[in-house]
Design goal:
The protein has helices at 19-41, 93-107, 122-127, and strands spanning 2-6, 11-15, 51-58, 64-73, 76-84, 112-118, 131-136, 144-150. It is built from 3 helices and 8 strands, in the order E-E-H-E-E-E-H-E-H-E-E. It folds into 2 domains: 1-46, no CATH class; 50-159, Aminopeptidase. Helix content is 28%, strand content 36%.
Length: 159
């Protein structure tokens, strides 16, 4: 971790180089503050606060072969990462992980699921009913596709 002092306001900033450092260095505290803001300032109900989740896929030897990490917030479920190790790809594991995330979204009464992916996985998401709503052209020529899937049967309208 690196600490940088902003002299004008005497605030220190820590930059986590890896996700493990980030999550270990106060991520949960940031989420608590964010959720407090939602509840106290925006008057959101507790169902709309950020709640994270992770799904592990393991083989018969209890070894991790893939997983999905995400969170729900403000009636949307966001997939941060979906990954399956090479030798376990094309065996339905990613599809199962996505189905379990969709189940979580429905249980949390989300209106849809959002994620981002690259050209090598965009067709996977499209086959699962996701549509791309934005494409970001990056300088390294790896376009980023932003995808979403609406969960119409979980939508509730107040009259």
């Amino acid at each position: 971790m690196k600490a940088v002092i902003l002299k004008k306001m005497n605030v220190s900033y820590e930059i986590a180089e890896y996700a493990e450092e980030f999550y270990a260095s106060g991520y949960s505290e940031i989420i608590k503050l964010l959720n407090s803001y939602y509840i106290e300032e925006l008057k959101e109900s507790k169902e709309n606060i950020r709640i994270g989740f992770g799904i592990h896929a393991k083989n018969e030897n209890d070894e991790l072969v893939g997983g999905l990490v995400g969170f729900s917030e403000l009636k949307w479920l966001y997939i941060d990462s979906l990954y399956v190790f090479g030798e376990y790809r094309n065996k339905g594991i990613a599809s199962s992980l996505l189905e379990k995330a969709e189940q979580i979204a429905r249980e949390r009464e989300c209106i849809g699921i959002k994620s981002e992916c690259y050209e090598n996985t965009i067709n996977f998401y499209r086959k699962k009913g996701y549509c791309d709503y934005y494409t970001e052209n990056t300088p390294n020529s790896h376009d980023v596709y932003y995808v979403k899937k609406m969960l119409c049967n979980s939508m509730s309208f107040k009259t």
